[in-house]
Design a protein that fits this description.
globular; mainly alpha; two-stranded antiparallel sheet
């Protein structure tokens, strides 16, 4: 057991990974985004809109948003909007609240909300709210606190929160809090760090953080840190770079950021870099992807890593963008 525990630790000497490999990450993201015939591109088409958001936001934080053609990207985003106002993951898919938020976030990055009828988008989001305050993800009726966050974030970015029954939305999210301080997908479900972010973020947007026991939730989150310095999503699970965002953003919102070892987390994220091809993976030596690359860079931004633009922990958008929009 001691040997296994030792292997889980991040080594003292990170070699070339001791610093953020900015240029390699930019090159990786740009190449991935432009190669639309690669295997990886094809098999991720069903969540492409979110993939584009992750890529662009990572590039923004790295100071290279203009390395991709913004005009073409905005045109593609608009081509993915359905008549009901919602957006799909790609042209061949159905609209979903997840990809509607991603589309809105992309337009925010480029300051192009003027390209859409915001009332039509808000009406689509509002149509997914249920009597108990929860939200369907789409017409098929799945309920998840992820969708509560997407709805509140989307309508807030569009300045259309009044389109929703915010109080009912808050009540549903609060009902998903467990005895341990975490949150699940629906009331009674297991606590999970991804859901904790969605619920804390939703309550933050709604101005209802008083519904949370901040110390209890903060303690559940900081217990996610493993001997490697990385964070996991649930007890007894492996650490994963993506939780650098899901957990850290919550601690930031709850003003409990100092409750974890930030230096240890930084070293874990850096150790997950691909020093040859760029990009960041879930754990050291695994294959990289844009999902973990974005959340790794975003986590470092929250930790105040030098040379990165600041990201907002609630909206998952650059602070500069939100300041321009008058949200901060």
């Amino acid at each position: 057991m001691e040997a296994l525990h030792s292997k889980a630790k991040t080594p003292d000497d990170l070699g070339p990974r001791a610093s953020l490999l900015r240029d390699k990450h930019v090159e990786y993201i740009v190449n991935f985004s432009k190669n639309d015939t690669s295997f990886e591109h094809v098999v991720t088409e069903h969540f492409k809109m979110s993939g584009v958001y992750w890529s662009l936001t990572a590039l923004y934080l790295l100071g290279h948003l203009d390395d991709l053609d913004g005009e073409n990207i905005v045109s593609w985003v608009l081509s993915c909007q359905h008549e009901n106002g919602g957006f799909c993951a790609s042209e061949r898919n159905d609209p979903h609240i997840l990809y509607t938020l991603s589309a809105v976030q992309i337009l925010c990055l480029y300051d192009r909300l003027d390209a859409i009828d915001v009332d039509r988008v808000a009406k689509y989001v509002a149509s997914l709210q249920q009597e108990d305050g929860s939200f369907f993800g789409d017409d098929w009726g799945e309920v998840d606190t992820r969708f509560s966050y997407c709805a509140l974030s989307c309508c807030s970015l569009l300045d259309r929160l009044e389109a929703l029954d915010v109080q009912k939305a808050v009540d549903f999210v609060a009902a998903c809090m467990n005895f341990d301080g975490g949150f699940g997908c629906i009331p009674g479900n297991e606590s999970h760090a991804g859901q904790v972010f969605c619920c804390v973020g939703a309550l933050s947007i709604a101005g209802a953080l008083d519904r949370i026991d901040k110390d209890l939730t903060g303690w559940w989150i900081c217990e996610r840190q493993t001997p490697s310095g990385g964070l996991n999503g649930r007890p007894e699970k492996l650490q994963d770079v993506c939780y650098s965002w899901w957990c850290l953003s919550c601690l930031h919102i709850l003003d409990r950021l100092e409750w974890i070892d930030g230096e240890g987390l930084t070293r874990f994220i850096l150790f997950c870099q691909d020093e040859e091809g760029g990009g960041i993976s879930d754990r050291p030596e695994d294959l990289v992807d844009v999902f973990h690359t974005f959340f790794g860079v975003a986590g470092l931004s929250l930790l105040g890593h030098p040379g990165l633009a600041k990201i907002d922990p609630t909206y998952a958008l650059p602070v500069e963008v939100l300041e321009r929009m008058g949200k901060l």
